[in-house]
Fold:
Amino acid sequence: MPLFSLSGVHLKHCKNTAKMKPERIPTPRLVTIPVSMHIGAPALPCVAVGDEVRVGQKIAEAGAGLSSPVYSGVSGKVKKLDEITAVNGAQIRAVVIECDGEQTLSETVTPPEVSDRESFLSALRESGIVGLGGAGFPTAVKLNVPEGRVDTVVVNGAECEPYITSDTRTMLDESELVAEGLSLVMKYLAIPNAIFGIEKNKPECIAKMKRETAALDGVQIRALPSVYPQGGEKVLVYHTTGRVIGEGKLPLDHGVIVINCTTLAAIAKYLRTGMPLVEKCVTVDGSAVKNPRNLIVPIGTSVRDVIEACGGFREAPKKILSGGPMMGVALVDLDAPVLKQTNAVLAFGEREAMTPKETACIRCGKCLESCPFSLAPVAIAKAYEQNDGAMLEKLKVNLCMECGCCSYICPAKRNLVQTNRLAKAALKTYQIKKKENETRGS
Ligand code: SF4
Ligand code: SF4
Structure:
């Protein structure tokens, strides 16, 4: 088992928008709401072209098994059921709504009745809430844990990626909701302890959450070093509880649930109001953005509208990211919609977006030193080139969370994360074949 460490990398925080309260943008003319914004089966559209929809109305039912329903954050008329290309290149269905600007509320928006564990989980299943830290895992499924199996909730308030400040704003502006969401999770799931991890570079958030949770039994606020990737699930669990989550294991296997602070606020909001997840706070920043800000936008709003709400571009953008500079995904066009789990849209000009030229590895070992899991990217790259699945397995490439520390620190600017990604796919193929051969041989 590789050692966990406090390695990672020190990044320039660039939290330019940390003091900017989120502002609601004017209702866009059109929204494109994908039915697959979560891990698991896509939701199934339950509206047809021409239907009138209202704010908070369900537009797609959860699919079978792991899934989440989807709701409209605007009122208007369904213009079409479209197929769009997701940021990962997959074709996904989307409901396109022409907004009427009235923002009429759906009569279905009423607070759910919650009195025990089952009714709490059943409400969450209807809420459309997924992990808002970026993962998009359906929250009702994550919290549906066997009774007595979890002793600690770890709250992710690390927000370790540069530029992004949407969680920071939630902790400052909605601290009461965050604390309420946490107490609801602890109460209904009978979890006695919670550790709230916040990086030390957010002293105001630490102070605010300390005040807000002071009356809650079993809750600790833990100031964590500002080292990227502090918010990585396994890293955060280790740094808050000391528990090591090995390869192929989940926090649940170690008695822990990890939940993002903004997800907690969304849970409390839903239980108070019955308004499902229909809008998102997004940090819009980067050298190419004229007026960086935090914005609250209906889910499905195009990146184009988001950028326009910030005064447009200051210079021609060379790279636009959904998410942070370390783990974000490059967007190919401005029509891409804001998703449930989008926490930032960053646009960079020529200088910042420049990709440095790769040179030969100088065997300095910095990539290994910086990896939170002590993985060996150079050895992984070699095993990948040699198509050596057994070695990739031995090197535990599956532990790689694609945080990018190794690529960031590499003086030769090697594309180590990309290689790790490919190596993980190669290992998957190797393991499938190995299993098939074992089955044939048995
Ligand atoms: S950090 Fe870069 S140059 Fe140094 S050993 Fe790793 S791959 Fe080679
Ligand atoms: S991208 Fe993977 S190998 Fe590189 S530092 Fe992060 S976890 Fe380690």
About this structure: Residues 432 and 438 are 10 Å apart (CA to CA).
